[in-house]
Amino acid sequence: MLTRMQRWDPVDILIRAGGSAPGTMLAEFCGDWHVRKAVAQGRIVRAARNRYLLPEASAALAAAARLNGTVSHLSAALHWEIKVRKPPRLPDVTLPRKRRPRDSTAGVTVHWHDLPDEHVAAPGVTTPARTVIDCARSLPLPDALSVADSALRRRLVTPEQLGHALASSPHPGRVAARRVLAEATPLAANPFESSLRAIALDVPGLKVVPQYLVEHVGHVDLCDPRMSLVLEADSHTWHGSPGQFRYDIRRHAALLRAGWTVVRFCWEDVMSQAAYVRGLLADLVHRGPDSRPVQVSFHDRRL
Q: How far apart are CA 127 and CA 113, in angstroms?
């Protein structure tokens, strides 16, 4: 099991943290020297005294300034330090529909929309509410839900503001956006939990509740009380210390003792093997609380 004594790459920590993290966290997992080296190499950006970001945020500002456009979508989320499931591959910039930029748009993901003035904040970035709506309209559910949950959790937006931004956004994608807004919650702790919930929402017959309070145990990441099923998002990045590992094992045992079925998912499977996670959850639903177990090899072909 990986522990804090084994040095992580600062970029990997920022990705797992959703795009931004305090310097104290990076120093704990990576060491001060590796953090300073990553900054010098331009692989991470020091945004404030104790705050570090992925460089995609500043790259988007430069691209928007060059094209006379607006930073939007996932790039805007990074700017507002809204946690994202995965950083954008290229900077997201929105341009007016009739504008034809003189500079090349190579290396930039261009979105063509006429943004209302109230949807743009200084310095040329879509507002948090419009950012959430743009992501909700255009991204897969795990990515969109991660952004919406984080914005609500950080109190950058309210449900009313999101509803207003949706009403004044382009019609394409509104159906998907309404679903994201209906499921979004500030209770999800991070994009890992949001992504697991998004996968669970696509499993027929499964109705999960985030941060459900189990008596005598505490809050669990996700729970379907009807099935006595608990889903936990366990990252060895944050649960690798001996004390935390012991606590997690005893907590797991307490849930089993109380009659709950507990399934723990690792970060890599939730983020990169959604089909495997979805299939496992579908098997659990099919089994039901009283049915015979589904026979699946440990070496699941969906892995």
A: 15
